[in-house]
Amino acid sequence: MLSKVKSLPTLATLTLVLAALMPFVPDELTLTTASFSAAFVLLFAFWVVAIVKDGLRIYAPASAKWLVGFQFSVLSSALVAALYGTPWTAWFRGAVPFLFLLAFFPFVDVAKREPQSLINAVHIASVLWLAKVAVMSGAGIAAVLAGEAQRLTQATEDWGTLTLPFGFIGLICSLFNNAPFARRLRWLLAPAFTLVALLTVYRSQLLIVTAVWMVYLVGLGARRMLGITVTLCALAAASMPYLLGLGLIQNIAERFSEVAGELGGSRMAEIRFAFRNFLESPLFGKGLGYPVPAEVTFFGDVQAMREAGVDSVGYVHNAVAYMAMDLGLIGLVCFFGFIFGNRWWRRRPTDLRLSSLWVIAVLGLGTLLAWILVEASFRQIQSNLALAALIAVLAALPAIPRRSAIAP
Predict the structure, then answer these.
(1) What is the b/e burial string over 278-312, where b = at least 16 CB atoms within 10 angstroms of the residue's CB?
(2) pTM (two decimals)
């Protein structure tokens, strides 16, 4: 029987871990990219063998059906892209990350058997990502803490890794995961994930991390929330003179003061461009990789265009606008059907152990949704694997609508 196949949880963990250690754009053949590819192929091979042994019975929740439709939209967009003159290489680069959403199928079988193991896999991958950041960007972290650099993304060559979602997903797992190793390391890992977000000064990451902490504190109950809030405020007050001396607080304040100006900046220009093209081909879109002029992406910043050295890019920084333009209504509806198809907001189990997993998956999914609306992370293999894992957990949990406590 499928439930007796013990290799799937191990391979699921290995796949997620190697994805976390892989470059955020795996466009070169390295040991990490080759190892990840091998693990992903093995995961699917073992899943297929398990399905065959189980009499070709596949667990297919509603999300699975929407995912099949979305993958059909991705593959058929090759013809649409060709009709609009998009180079095949540009289409391929846009299509490959979405193909890794297919990890949902082996993931959901793992989650159906033991959802805790899949949450643990995501957590372990996030911790190893954090270790990679410490090793690869250690000099940059030291430079920021010494006041020699304003933020980590400017002080390390490995800045792209910081755009991966493992930071806030790792924080969520660290705070809410009730596995023994997670409880023991909670107050080591949660501050570490928070510190990375603070040092990178990504506005969206800072807002997400703040929201996660607020949910955690509210879920503790009044007495525990008061105690931990007072402790955190005391630590913040004690470290404030040091942070002010670094200029980090001023830098964060300056970044947030720029938000109003950016509402009419490049991101809004990208959205307007995307929806103009969507209206020209609303059903099927214009195919993945449809070029967005550099003048739109960089909002006429000639210096930035020169530094980038490109005439156009194949994406915009908003998943809704991107899929509407490239995949049309069919792709857009199927993608969000994959996310919301199981009505997970009505499926919270009453069992406290399963309820904590539900909270992790819902919060993780919510942060990913927020992230793909402001960053092009939907074009990252790692983000799509994390998305597939979290939806697999939600799809596999029993549908019991009663409420229960969420505090760990």
Answers:
(1) beebeebbbbbbbbbebbbbbbeeeeebeeeeeee
(2) 0.89
